[in-house]
Amino acid sequence: MKRTLYLLHRWLGIALCLFMALWFVSGVVMMYVGYPKLSSQERLSALPPLEPQHCCNGLSTALTELAGLADSGTLRSLRLTTLGKDPALIAGLEKGRYRVFSTDGSPRGPVTREQALATAQAFRPGVAATYLDQVEEDAWSHSKALDSHRPLHRVALADADETWLYLSGSTGEVVRDASATERTWNWLGAWLHWLYPLRGGLLDAWWTDIVITLSVAATVLGIVGLWVGILRWRRRPYASGSRSPYRNPWMRWHHWLGLGFGLLSVTWIASGLFSVNPWKMFDSAGPRPAPRPALSRPDVSSLREPMALTDALGRFHAAGLAAKEVEWTTLAGRSYLLARDGQGHSQLLDWPLQRDEQPFAAFSQEALALAGQGLLPGYGVVDQQLQADYDWHYYARAPHSMTGHMERPLPVLRLTFDDPAHTWLYLDPASGAVVHRLNDALRLKRWLFALLHSWDWRPLLQHRPVWDVLLIGASLGGFLLSLSGAVIGFRRLRRPLPRQ
């Protein structure tokens, strides 16, 4: 039995130790330089304010097509934004499709090279821009969130950060930016850590399976190594005074490091496995929240009167909000305009407009709770809490981190349902949107992945650099453990085979 353990540990270590050492190094890089992303606030801050007198006069001609989409139930979202220097309506359809209308109401065709370049130049005014190419996917655009925008246009900016902009081939919007710092460090960071060398090529279809297999093998390696290390540790010192039987310095250090950092390394590798939802273990069989209803003909019919939208923008401006984007939204069967600026502020108006109505900042708790009753069909709300602070499950991370792109506004209304999965929904009063969802399976993932892998424990996150020192120290221990194992394995492979 012992010999089997020793051999299993030896050959798994030879196969995986160098790979695991790179995992620890890349994890430290990701603590400070995340995978490229563009947050909603970054995108909005780069847009010009919508000018009431110039934005809406021709949009009524788009009504016929929009009404048809609404009647068919395929109009999932509608936004008034700016593409390049011109306002445009972007209609989100089912299955991730889009329809874009220019200021004169005419539908836009596929995004051209010239349109992408013009939008990129408007995104960073005064900075020279060079069109690079059109790509389906590259090292910095693997995210599934970009799938509905492919192919992507790449544009290089001559700014201090040497930024690349990625523009949607569907809408023409900027959907990602990647600075030279991000592109350089991520070769040693997320690109290595997430095994992205295997993405986009022949092995792309098996990427998840490869990650799961390697993670399971590395977890087994760590568990067996701990077992072997404990078996080889001696309570009574050897004649040399050491409690480890190994005389070779590399072997002895590997033994000590394994006893000190082995369990921590196992939890890191195993928790990394949980990040890819292996075997769909975090998929709940329970009910899922109902999606927001599709926009209806009354939601878009008011576009027939351009002055209605012009009037709405004027009211937002008079209330102190320089709206950069306006979105049509619904709550509890009623329609609203949601306007956002570039500093994280927003306001709402009833739609169609009511006489003398003024913008308001947020929905009331009563309105949100009423709307929440219908979010999980067949089940009721058993508790509601308006939270002004984060909790164990609902919290914000730094923008560059893995979950930094997820908006976590405050205050937020948490609704608890009586379904078998014990669902919690967090609703943003400023928009009425569900900004976070939890059930029993996802709460388990919070422990097994976020806590064990990223050490997302609020007292640590709130006391930097304690979090940094602990993570870097633990990563260094794991790296030295893996590196010593790689050296031992390399020397074992160099050993000549015994003669027969």
Task: Walk me through what this model shows.
By secondary structure, the chain is α+β, with helices and mostly antiparallel strands. It folds into four domains: 1-36 and 188-284 and 466-500; 40-187, no CATH class; 297-361; 367-438, no CATH class. It has 15 helices and 14 strands. It has a six-stranded antiparallel β-sheet with strand order 3-2-1-8-9-10. It has a four-stranded antiparallel β-sheet with strand order 4-5-6-7. The chain has a four-stranded antiparallel β-sheet with strand order 11-12-13-14. Strand 1 (75-83) and strand 2 (86-93) form a beta hairpin.
Indicate the topology:
Blueprint: H1 2-30, H2 40-45, H3 52-55, H4 63-71, E1 75-83, E2 86-93, E3 98-101, H5 113-123, E4 129-135, E5 152-157, E6 164-168, E7 174-178, H6 180-185, H7 190-193, H8 207-232, H9 249-274, H10 297-301, H11 306-318, E8 325-331, E9 334-340, E10 346-350, H12 365-372, E11 381-387, E12 412-417, E13 424-427, E14 434-438, H13 440-454, H14 458-461, H15 466-494
Number of strands: 14
List the secondary-structure elements in sequence, H or E: HHHHEEEHEEEEHHHHHHEEEHEEEEHHH
Q: Helix share of residues?
A: 25-40%
Count the domains.
Answer: 4
Distance between the termini: 26 Å
Structural Rg? 27 Å
Number of helices: 15
Give the amount of beta strand, in percent. 15-25%
Strand order of the largest sheet: 3-2-1-8-9-10
Which geometry do the CA atoms define? elongated
Largest sheet: 6 strands, antiparallel
Category by helix and strand content: alpha+beta
| Sequence stretches where pLDDT stays below 50 over 5 or more residues | none
Question: Residue-averaged pLDDT, rounded?
Answer: 91
